[in-house]
Structures are given as structure tokens and as C-alpha cells.
Amino acid sequence: MITHNDLLVNDLEQFLTENQVRRAVIIADREVCQLHGNFFRSFPCNYCTYPLKVSETKKNWQEIEKIMKFMLREKITTDTWLVNVGGGVICDMGSLSATLYKRGMHVLNIPTTLLSMIDAAWGGKTGVNMSKVKNAIGTYNNDYHVFIDISFLKTLPAKELWSAVGEMFKYALIADKNLWKKLGTLPTSEKMINMEMIPYDWIQTCIEIKQHFVLQDFRDTGIRRVLNAGHTLGHAIESLCANKNILTHGHAVALGLIAEAYISAKQRFLPMNTAKEIKSKILPLFPAPRLSSRDKTIMYHLIENDKKNNHGKICLPLIQEIGKCSPLQYTLREEILEAFSFLEESG
Ligand code: GLY
Predict the structure, then answer these.
(1) Closest ligand 1 atom to the C-alpha of 225?
(2) Is 236 in the pocket of ligand 1 (CB under 6 A)?
(3) Containing domain of residue 219, as a range?
(4) Residue 13 DSSP SS3
(5) pTM of the model
(6) CATH of the domain at 133
(7) Does residue 162 share a domain with residue 71?
(8) What is the pLDDT of residues 248-301, one digit of tens each?
(9) Are strands 144-147 and 133-137 parallel, antiparallel or unpaired?
């Protein structure tokens, strides 16, 4: 059985030597290339780099074609490892290219954002967007390893660190009451956050939780769906606010957790007092945008089209208690609209 320890690389040079990696193709976030020149200069094997300007709109099939044509030009063979250096978009796109190129290459993820260290670098999902559908094209790839170097976080904007905190709240709510308590020690504003406030053992805990669910359900048909807690309603908020560029992914997930805690309480999975406790802990850190009734209707329609729905019903994980979550539950229009209102009510 693969555990997260088997996948975690402790010493990069030793790992590359042990695996007889003579050449690597590095798919890298262009900004990371500029900020972390030393990392690339001292990369311990022969390599070529494909720098990519990262954005959600660049996460498309045309870019995958460009990556693969680059690899053909560079005469990359399948004994070359594909190394992703960047955040979630890079890990998803590079890994998709790796699974397709000449029927498969080994992957090493080197996540450079806190969010990708605790999420996208793990679990083997690859993908790009198509026709505005997020990750419409993708594969599952279990041929990957992860090397974590937290010195990349030194140049990460506070806003991005804060986004990862939103995902940390998710891990705490679905699986770890202790982490929930520890997160209570954080400042209440992204303006006061720095990486010293996020101990490495919190990162480790999140990875362990992710791997705990991934290893039971790699292809995401059951228990792994708890990792989507906060994401069904959160994605709708994120999409609604996308043009205004005001909410990070983690911020939207944090708001989604509050709204979904309300639905959990409405369905008597969770006492309403606990839903209120969740709200009182998360909302001061991640304030909700003002939502008009038109906004709520738009978000409901986005949720109706969520790819995780089953049999025409809106499917989402519901929180049972702090540290426990049930996947594959259902909800109704009324509950969703009320959940968005719950975000705005005081108390
Ligand atoms: N990010 C959710 C998953 O990997 O299943």
C-alpha cells in the first residue's frame, strides 16, 4: 500500500540518484523561475525548462499541446522525469501532459504555494478546463512523488498563504478537531499572516488527511468526496466573484464551509449551535461579500450544473461534527438559498 511517506521525497538529490534520473523536463511557473533562480541553478540533474505564465484561463488544451510539442522538440524520452514546479495549475497541467506524452512519464511535484503543498500536489488528479468547465479534461495518475521545500513560501503573497488557511479549515472540519483548535490561534486578518505562524506539522496533518481519503478511494467515487467539503457552495461564490477578482479559492471554500454547515444543521446532521460556532470562527477571518437575491439565484444555477451531482440531484458532503464528514449527501434549492442568507445574518 502506498502511504504519503512513500510518495514524499526527503532529499531531492538522493531521490534523483536512487531513481537514476538523468534528465528532467521542468514545467515551471514563470514567476517562480524569476524569484527562485537559485533553486533552478542548483537543480541536481540535467534538465530543460518549460516556463508557463500561470492563470486559470491558460489552463487549457492548447497549452497542453504546446508542452507536448516542446517535449518532442527536446527529444524527451519516457525515462526523463516530468517535474512540476509551481502551484495547482502547474501540477494539474504538467501531470496531464506527463500521463499522455508517449503513454506516460514519471512525475515529481515540487509545489511552491501552500495550497498546492497541502492539496493539488497530492492525490493524482490531473486536468485542464474546456468550454468554461473546470477540469473537464483530465486523468488520474498514481505515478508521482512530491518534494516539499517550504522556502518557496518566503516569496508567496500573504493573500495566497491566507487562501491555504481556508483549505486548512476544511481539513480540520472533515477530520481533525485538534487542527480546528490550533487554527483558532491564527490572527483574524490576512494582513497579519506570515509563514512562521503556520507550523510545518499543520502542513503535515493536512497532507495526512488528504492521503487518508485518497488511498481509500483513488478514483473519487465515495469517501474521497469529503475533500470537497465547502467546495460546492464555495465554487459558486468563487465563480460569481471571479470577474471582481476579490476572493481567493481558499476564501471561497471557507465561506462554502459555513454555508454547508448550515445545510448540515438543517438536515440534522449537525446541531445548529455547532453550525453557528463554525460561522463565528471562520467568518471574521473570511468575510462574506454582499449577495443580492439575483446573485443567489445565479449561484444556485451554477451549483445545479456542478459535475459532482448525481442522478440530477445536488450532491455534496455534509459535516456531522467538528472533525467528521459524510460524503454523497443531497440538498435542495431552498436549503441552498437559506445557506447563502446564513452567511449574511449576524449571530
Ligand atoms: N481536491 C480534492 C481531491 O483531490 O479529491
Answers:
(1) 5
(2) no
(3) 157-344
(4) helix
(5) 0.96
(6) 3.40.50.1970
(7) no
(8) 999 999 999 999 999 999 999 999 999 999 999 999 999 999 999 999 999 999
(9) unpaired
